[in-house]
Amino acid sequence: MPDAEGVGASGRRLRVCALYPDLLNIYADRGNLLLLERRCSWRGIGFELASSGLGEPLDADAHELFYLGGGQDRDQLLCAQDLIETKRSGLHAAATRGAVVLGVCGGYQLLGRSYTLGRERIEGVGLLDVETVREDAHRLIGNIAIEVSLDHTGGAELLVGFENHGGRTRLSPGQDALGRVLKGHGNDGRSGMEGARSGNTIGTYLHGPLLPKNTWFADWLIARALGLQPHELAPLDDTLERAAHANAGRAAGVQVG
Questions:
Q1: What is residue 235's DSSP assignment?
Q2: CA contacts within 13 A on the Cβ side of 113
Q3: What DSSP letter does each residue of 160-226 carry, written as one string?
Q4: Which of 108, 163, 189, 213 has the fewest CB atoms within 10 Å, i.e. the most exposed one?
């Protein structure tokens, strides 16, 4: 239950659409969705979870938050083809009206302009101006911590998680990164940048899952999707959540708090 005044049982409702949840779900993606549901429920905010699978159209106005997780190469290829054929225009329309679009790992790659799979170049939906290539090099694996600034105050927050990707993602000039790598590899192991952000569209390689380790970021997503500021959400007793965040930070080699 909320421990102070804030947005709670006020008739608000967060409608979430998980894209291809049966195929893009190998990085604890259900944990991210469950975390969103619980934090809304504890505040008395309604929560609806829908899905859009292969061959199903996407209603740009039916949801405030769209989620793409990670999958195996074969499944990701199927989803990439379907995104172009049935969902790209809907996602672009949703992003244009301000809906939140979050892509994690493979979902991040799908939100870009393209990525390579073997010798094949796979077209993405183009919400983020990035390209992902495969290099003849080791995978980028391990605990990771990045510093992010999501508002205009200049304040920085810490995102922690785990990365495991063979692709190297390159940001085009003018494309903002999600954050600066403190520990770990990030987009390509060289640039010192991780993820990408354009308005309310965010892509990142952090998983394990992402949101239970970073509940402040989950609240930012919820607030953004509902047209609120995070401080307008009723605060919760996050003692355990802060401990999990600190433990993940220490695993990456960063002291939290």
A1: P
A2: 9
A3: EEEEEESEEEEEPTTPBPSEEEEES-TTTSSSSEE-EEETTEEEE--BSSHHHH-HHHHHHHHHHHH
A4: 189
Tokens found for residue 101: 């679009």
d(CA 53, CA 79) in angstroms, rounded, equals 8
Q: What is the identity of the amino acid at 229?
A: Q
Say how far residue 169 (Cα) sits from the centre of its chain: 15
Q: Is residue 206 packed enough to be buried (19+ CB in 10 Å), middle (13-18) or exposed (0-12)?
A: buried
CATH numeric code, 13-252: 3.40.50.880
Domain ranges of the chain: 13-252
Q: Which residues have a catalytic role annotated? A: 105, 207
pLDDT attached to residue 117: 76
Question: Which residues 6+ apart lie within 8 Å of 190 measured at CB?
Answer: none
Tens digits of residue pLDDT in 141-196 = 999 999 999 986 567 899 999 999 999 999 999 999 999 999 999 999 999 999 99
